[in-house]
Amino acid sequence: MFRRNRKIFSLLAGLLVMGLLLSGCGGSATTSAESKEPYKVGAIFDVSGKASSLGIPERDTAQMVVDEINANGGINDHPIELIIKDSKSNETEAALAAKSLIQEGVAAIIGSSSSGTTMAMVEIVQNAEIPLISCAASVRITEPVAERKWVFKVAQSDSIVAEKITEYLKANGMNKVALASVNDAYGDSGRAEFEKAAAAAGITIVAKEKFEAADTIMTSQLTNIKSQNPDAVIAWAIPPAASSFTANYRQMGIDAPLIHSSGVGNQTYLDLAGEAAEGTVFPVGRLLVAEQLSDSDPQKTVTTEYAKKYEEKFGPRSTFGGHAWDAVKIVAQALEKVGPDPAKIRDEIEKTSFTGVTAVFNFTPEDHSGLTKDCLVMVKVSDGKWELVK
User: What is the pTM of this model?
Assistant: First the structure.
């Protein structure tokens, strides 16, 4: 009897141990997946200050994309820890934020929203050898490439925006124009690029004016512009200054077409300019007119899907939010392939081809923007909405 009971006891003990082992195996697998170290990614946006109309949709989009990635298991079972900092549209704050993120051990940095705040970070990331993907426009962010090894960008460069505008001018017989630009890094870079593009296209600039980002009255600049009787007027700024310029323009009764840079590609421009924005034209990525694209357009699916997700959560789409979507996706793609090593991420981005919200990107060692003017379309404000100029 004792021997039989001992056999039964041994059998039961064995079953118990096996059950514990099986349970333990399942539990350890779950724990292992959940306990994998997060991949730290930094983001610096102009969430407050003069460029907040750019930074807010970028912040919201970046967090939305990361939340979606993490909900689907992260990157190779590693969650992304997105550390977002506000540059406050200030170059000093942007530099301090970049240094802080580097100290926190991020594998890459996304941002900033504007050219000035991005340029304040370039030398810092170069010295730290941390890849940066900017959401700003100035061609100087990534050129010369030999001095920008660690820097990339997803916003269309002002150089190709200038080319697109001059192409539009020539097609419409506008050969004599005036140029007004905001007095900051974005405006200065755009001004220089437009002057080069205009000269190459045989377009004469009959007046050049500047205004400050905080200006609401541009009467003196517009008086001089009106006196030159240009065929068209080019404005290079972002809201709120771009909206104020547009309102002043209509008040001055200038008949020439008003053409903006890509800096007005958001609802803030329409809200602040109101009826004055009607008829203004500008080059921008395809997002604002996603539903108007041909079904054969390679960006139609990605732009319409992003627009739907963003608008369900946050309201009207913004071309600047699209920049953040692209930047996060490009970093995530690199992380999936090479892990959180900054040098390997940099190398991976440099050979990336990617269909995004902003454009179809083709990065190379010689081109850290990866875009041509064909990524832009001309858009017109019509009845308070965006209309594709065909």
Answer: 0.86
